[in-house]
Amino acid sequence: MTKHSLSLALSALLLGGCVSFAPDYQRPQAPVPATLGQPGAQGAATLDQVAWRDFFADERLRQLVGLALENNRDLRVSALNIERARAQYQIQRADLFPTIGITGSGTAQRLPGDLTATGEPAISRQYSVGVGFSSYELDFFGRIRSLRDVALENYLATEEAQRSARISLVAEVANAWFTLAADRERLKLARETLESRKSSYDLTRRSFEAGVSSAQDALQARTSLESARADVATYSAQVAQDQNALRLIVGAEVSAGLLPEQLSLEVTRMAELPAGLSSELLQQRPDILQSERSLRAANANIGAARAAYFPSITLTGSAGTASASLGGLFESGSGTWSFMPQINLPIFDMGRRSANVEVAEADRDIAIAQYERAVQSAFREVADVLAERATLGERLDARGEQTAASSESLKLADIRYRSGVDSYLSVLDAQRTLYASQLELIAARAAQASNTVNLYKVFGGGWQ
């Protein structure tokens, strides 16, 4: 290869990829209010990104979450999707560079009509060895670089998707754990209620046999007893189902030592949120970042579609040695080289390139709408969690007072029944009211635990 040809080829390689027709990326304005939460809410100092190990207070729950992150099959699929996207990005990035290889060949051909001095048919032989590259496209107009950027953004989007999956899994494990704790408390309450109603039924039955109370009182006590027995069976099945659900989420067997005995109000060791949080925090959620990465990929794809309007230039070149005999391959004067540039510019394609640009621009507009929708959905999720959180304390306090009042009412009803002032129906009503109040108190405590877990989730695994 001459010095002039070599210089030309190197200059073309260096100039490749100097132009891009992708639009300048601008993050869309978030179509949500500037702040989150309710003004005037009490709070403490803000926190940087909170890790789940620092968020949850119970050590058993932390161990269970760690077990789920190691064994959950959905999370394993997310990790494999990242590996796949990384490989696709590496494939696309490789197109920016020439593929260089060594080739060797040998041919033998009989020439019709040619004879040797001995009268034998003449055979022509040719051997060659060379190194070079084939059909390397010079990226003058940024087509390959835009496609590389598309692959890169898709790869980064899968990483954000895995982060989102991890956060969702952490929240799912915690919610399942607290659901099991609440149902265990309900089962415990149902069993205590069953024992209490057994005692009441036995007392009422003996009173009826002694002629002190009516048959209706005994039947009403029996009805209340059977209702409690049915609740015990219902909650026993629910606890078993909760354990099955937890085992599926974790992806492995869960030892009894990691299961909750009762519902604790100490869900997290973190301080309360401060008032007036900026809605810009939502842009750090992995699902929002994933949507933005997809938008960036669609934006880069426009550059690839626009670059198709311009010529594509490909190079093929090689240098090596050739000889009619194997022994002469590396002798002086056997060197060979070739350099074959090619340019291609479609003249008429029935509007195919224009349509491709329109499709790419429409995909970009769709990605913008999806990004804005993701931001709006995230804002709604955060607003709902904070709205519920603002009333949970009052709700929990009210249920506690209701349960205390129901307990006193049952004591008074029992005294009045034993004194002959009221019928046994008033005792049954007081028992049902207390039982319902106790269940509602458990539900309120479970809602508070779930709200705390959802707070971790909607802020993307923490907040700033």
TrEMBL record:
PROSITE patterns: PROKAR_LIPOPROTEIN. This is Multidrug efflux system outer membrane protein. NCBIfam families: outer_NodT. It comes from the Bacteria. It is found in: Cell membrane. It is a lipid-anchor. GO terms for cellular component: plasma membrane. Keywords: Lipoprotein, Membrane, Palmitate, Signal, Transmembrane, Transmembrane beta strand.
